[in-house]
Design brief:
This protein is an alpha/beta fold. It has helices spanning 15-26, 63-76, 136-144, 161-172, 191-199, 257-261, 302-319, 325-342, 349-359, and strands at 2-11, 31-34, 80-82, 85-91, 95-100, 103-114, 118-120, 133-135, 153-157, 176-182, 204-206, 208-214, 221-226, 239-241, 245-248, 252-254, 266-269, 274-277, 290-292. Strands 1, 2, 3, 4, 5, 6 and 19 form a seven-stranded mixed sheet that branches. A five-stranded parallel sheet has the order 8-15-9-10-11. The chain has a three-stranded antiparallel sheet with strand order 12-13-14, with no helix packed on it. Helix 1 (15-26) packs parallel to helix 2 (63-76).
């Protein structure tokens, strides 16, 4: 078994993990980033759309370009990125057990930052195990990373930003989106994404659900129907669609296992995806020296994940005595201000309230 000693170990090379590593390295920390994938960047590398928001949040830049910039910055600062490396657990504070390219690795870290991201939620309906039923994120990976169209005729289930964006990207890739359905009475994502689909002629049906999928050896069709105010299908509204791929985009849940194995207490807020590691305003969990950032700390958006990563990296560096108290508090205050701005408006209200409640000790499980 190989053993390593580092100041800061980061689990996950997505937007939060890379941002944390850059911030910590800027303060002079020795940083090791580990990721199970063969390429760094996490979700950024399959996001071909341009980001919204302000210039400081790289509005107008495509996700994969942001990933490339962050990776180059991290490498320029001397951050070591270890890919094809699965962190299997953390114990005794900051001892990380990993398998890298099939070989065991023990990392003794003074601080650990867990940025493991999130998983897609499942949706169960008759026929959901047929080949051709997949998460929208999987379809996005097939199209934007591997250049493979998952099917020629798509049904998208879910109208959050992921569902809307992936449906539009399927059109760009040459597919047909037969319909996008949403069980809620209104679109869940940004109107600008929905408008693109509407202009392309994609039928968007709110208050609709999928009743089932059918097919012999793979998906050949699906039945959808309208639902009433109690979310029950309305008899007589069933519609059959000939589709060969059904994408499910019904939300994400934090990937919490590594953080909880470290001993962190859990919190629960539906607005943040359910269970996640409880943390304070410095992004530190209930285990001293173990920090979290990004979707694992509550599902939000990529820009928020990067700001939380910067805060976690800054906090970890400060806890090691690499920067003064005055410097830390000034920079942390700036980051908190940007996080507040990202959580402003109707889309961020529930997340802002949930994050504030955690700091008051609400929602933390025994």
């Amino acid at each position: 078994m190989t053993m390593r000693e580092v100041q800061i170990a980061v689990v996950g090379a997505g937007p939060a993990g890379l941002a944390a590593s850059v911030e910590a390295a800027r303060k002079g920390a020795q940083v090791l980033v580990m990721d199970e994938q063969l390429e760094p960047g996490g979700q950024l590398y399959k996001q071909i759309h341009k980001f919204f928001g302000s210039r400081e949040h790289l509005a107008g830049v495509r996700g994969f370009d942001i990933g490339r910039q962050m990776l180059a910055e991290a490498q320029g600062l001397g951050v070591e990125i270890l890919l094809d490396t699965v962190v299997q657990g953390i114990c005794d504070g900051n001892t990380l057990f990993a398998v890298t390219r099939g070989e065991p690795l023990l990392v003794m870290a003074q601080r650990a930052i867990v940025a493991t991201g999130a998983n897609e939620n499942n949706l169960y309906f008759p026929g959901w195990t047929l080949p051709g039923v997949m998460g929208a994120g999987a379809a996005q990976t097939m199209m934007n990373v591997h250049m493979v169209l998952p099917g020629k005729r798509m049904l998208m289930v879910g109208s959050g930003n992921v569902g809307l964006i992936v449906a539009y990207q399927a059109l760009l890739a040459g597919g047909e989106v037969k319909m996008l359905i949403e069980a809620a009475p209104r679109i869940g994502g940004y109107g600008v994404h929905a408008a693109k689909l509407a202009r392309a002629g994609v039928p968007i049906r709110t208050s609709h659900t999928i009743l089932g999928a059918w097919g012999d050896r793979q998906v050949e069709g699906a039945t959808v129907a309208q639902v009433d105010k109690d979310w029950k299908p309305v008899p007589g509204t069933e519609v059959d669609l000939e589709v060969d791929v059904i994408c499910v985009a019904v939300g994400l849940r934090p990937l919490i296992e590594v953080a909880l194995m470290a001993g962190s207490r859990a919190a629960w807020f539906p607005a943040l995806g359910g269970h996640f590691p409880a943390h304070n305003e410095r992004m530190e969990t209930s285990v001293p020296g173990v920090f979290v950032a990004g979707d694992v700390a509550g599902v939000e958006e990529a820009s928020t994940a990067m700001e939380e990563g910067r805060l976690a990296g800054l906090s970890a560096a400060w806890s090691l005595g690499l920067i003064s108290d005055d410097c830390y508090h000034a920079e942390a205050r700036d980051i908190q201000g940007r996080l507040e701005a990202l959580r402003s408006g109707p889309f961020g209200a529930a997340r802002r309230q949930a994050k504030a409640a955690i700091l008051e000790g609400e929602g933390i499980l025994a």
